[in-house]
Amino acid sequence: MTDLAADLAPTPGQTIGPFFHYALPYAHDRELVPPGRAGAVRLHGHVYDGAGNGVPDALVEIRHADPSGAVPAVEGSIRREGGAFTGWGRSTTDRTGRYWFSTLEPGPTRAGGAACFAVTVFARGLLNRLFTRVYVPGDDAALAAEPLLAGLPADERTRLVAVREPGGDLWFDVHLQGERETVFLSFPRHRDCT
């Protein structure tokens, strides 16, 4: 008997998109909670390519804890109206590259930890989806102690923290390449796919 795994070489993923606006959006996909609900916050920004142009056909997904820091374990993320908070949403970008979510601000999932959104970005020309985090500003001690942020140079650290707007909303731009490239994360099982 031969070891097939030893004989097989990893192959690259298939180029992603651009088909997101056709097949993946669904009603209220970006509304984890209804806009205007008590406690709702808007997380929004743009997805930019390496030349600084908005990517009109990207898709951004978020997953995060609720305000108490508990990660929801609720089925039925696609059913929004009248359902429980699932902590998961999906937003396509518009023709300028803009995305937005109406959600609850996450709490830290561990004592002393920094609250964040887990973010996945899909866009044309990518062989695989990209992973990053968006940290919630405000708790400077927690942000300074966050292991991922502490391991980055100062300029890259700031690129992972959202900007709080005067009304309380959170602004975060994703840069796929270039001088302001967002810090993207890799996971062991994705290592051989890039």
TrEMBL record:
Root EC class: oxidoreductase
Name of the gene encoding the protein in the UniProt record: pcaG
Protein name as catalogued: Protocatechuate 3,4-dioxygenase subunit alpha
Highest taxon, organism lineage: Bacteria
NCBIfam families registered for this protein in UniProt: protocat_alph
MF-aspect GO terms: ferric iron binding; protocatechuate 3,4-dioxygenase activity
Domain Intradiol ring-cleavage dioxygenases per the UniProt entry, residue ranges: 28-112
Record-stated family: Belongs to the intradiol ring-cleavage dioxygenase family.
Organism, scientific name: Nocardioides immobilis
InterPro entries for the chain: Intradiol_dOase_C, Intradiol_dOase_core, Intradiol_RC_Dioxygenase, Protocat_dOase_a
EC number of this enzyme: 1.13.11.3
Keywords: Dioxygenase, Oxidoreductase
Pfam short name (any one): Dioxygenase_C
